[in-house]
Amino acid sequence: MYLTREEERMLDGEYGEGVRKFMELLVKLGDIYGAERMIPVGSAQIAGISYKNIGDPGLEFLEEVSTDARVRVPSFMNPAGMDLDRWKELGIPEDFAEKQKRVVEALKRMGVVPTLTCTPYLAGLLPRFGEHIAWAESSAVIYANSILGARTNREGGPSALAAAVTGRTPYYGLHLDENRQPTIGFDIKAPISGEYGFSVLAYTITKKVKKGIPYFRGIRGSADELKVFGATLAAFGGIALFHAEGITPERVEPPREFIEIDKEELKEVKEEIREEYRDVDVVVLGCPHASIPQLKRLKELLGDRVFRVPVWVFVAYPIKEALERSGLKDELEERNVKILSDMCAVVAPLDVLGIKTAVTNSGKMFRYLPATNGVKTYLDSLEHIVEVLAE
Ligand code: F3S
Asked: Is the CB of 364 within 6 Å of ligand 1?
């Protein structure tokens, strides 16, 4: 693999042991994927933040590399296993909280911004069209590639951190034009709306395609709907890029053949995944992290009603601040809705909190909450969740 003089100096340890280790990792990765060279990245987004996921070995590794490695490009953190301010209220154990804070502190020492969100693009990190970046969170990767037109592979925690510290990533995969061409077309012959509607559509598509790059005709959606759509495509199908006519900024040739998806088929899928619920331990919203318009919509739907079970809405920290200032946070909290930043239920220690059942409007949460925490999870529309659980 060709390395510039600067990259060789990193590999030779001239910038310290931490940088050397990270450059070594990137060179190995590049060799595995046949990259001819490195490219500079505009930003990095680091996953593997929750202590629940990385445990003591991950914490020790981060504390060790944080002694000398510093990031070279704007770098944001993915969600942790708890809200850094409200963890006690949630019942998170002290020892978990102490170790989770040490993870965040180690990354802060390296210069990673503690935004702790899966929606960095809502929190101040917005890549431009065509920009090469190294992001790790699957829902953010597909959003950046498909909606923003930036270019990133789905990085692992260590490779994203390596890109942050060196400012480089191996030039392969979705960084290259030839790997970004659509491989299969879908013609959507049904109106789709809401996070639930887009989750069901994404789930239906992933039953038909397990790899490749889909091209969609006939979908329209808000940024928030497309955020959930991409997250669910990534969760069920491992998809990191899609093209959608009128939405994706990148110009590509449409595929020759299209598979039609109609109302009837979507209705059948809804029936297949529908399960009745009357009470759950918690409602989980904000997967990916919610925006202000989504919270406003929740408030409108609720009106004067109050949820009779706790509702957790995950948001990026700057969104929580804005909700506080606008008074919307208090209005929602009075209705049994907790606005939580820095975290995600999937990487939180829900087992120790005694949570066994949940309902969500996000296909991604529906996919992962049972797998990671053994929580029985229902998928439903926000409108219906409010109907069933608020009074
Ligand atoms: Fe974000 Fe967690 Fe969903 S990281 S996309 S809230 S599963």
From this structure: yes
Of 41, 159, 161, 162, whose CA–CA distance to 103 is shortest?
161
Quick one: which atom of ligand 1 is closest to the CA of 314?
6
Instruction: Judge contact between 240 and 138, C-beta under 8 A.
Output: yes
Question: Could you tell me which of 313, 308, 295 has the C-alpha nearest to residue 335?
Answer: 308
Residues of the chain with pLDDT under 70: none
Q: What is the dihedral of CA 366, 203, 295, 378, to 10 degrees?
A: -30
CB 307 within 8 A of CB 389: yes
Domain boundary, last residue among 227, 248, 273: 273
How many angstroms is it from 360 CA to the middle of ligand 1?
12
Cβ neighbours of residue 306 under 8 Å, at least 6 residues apart? Answer: 334, 335, 336, 390, 391
Q: Which residue puts its alpha carbon closest to atom 3 of ligand 1? A: 287
Write down the pTM of the prediction: 0.96
Are residues 341 and 316 in contact, defined by beta-carbon separation less than 8 angstroms? yes
E-strand stretches of the chain: 38-40, 44-46, 75-77, 134-135, 168-170, 184-189, 214-217, 243-244, 258-262, 282-290, 311-315, 337-341, 357-360, 376-379
How far does residue 224's CA lie from ligand 1's centre (Å)?
Answer: 13
Ligand 1 within 6 A of 255 CB?
A: no
Q: Are residues 115 and 21 in the same domain?
A: yes
Can you tell me which atom of ligand 1 is nearest the CA of 347?
Answer: 2
- The boundaries of the domain holding residue 152 are 5-176
Q: Are residues 265 and 199 in the same domain?
A: yes
Domain co-membership, 126 together with 230: no
Which two tokens mark 114? 């503690």
Ligand 1 lined by 99 (C-beta under 6 Å): no
Tell me what pLDDT residue 213 has.
Answer: 96
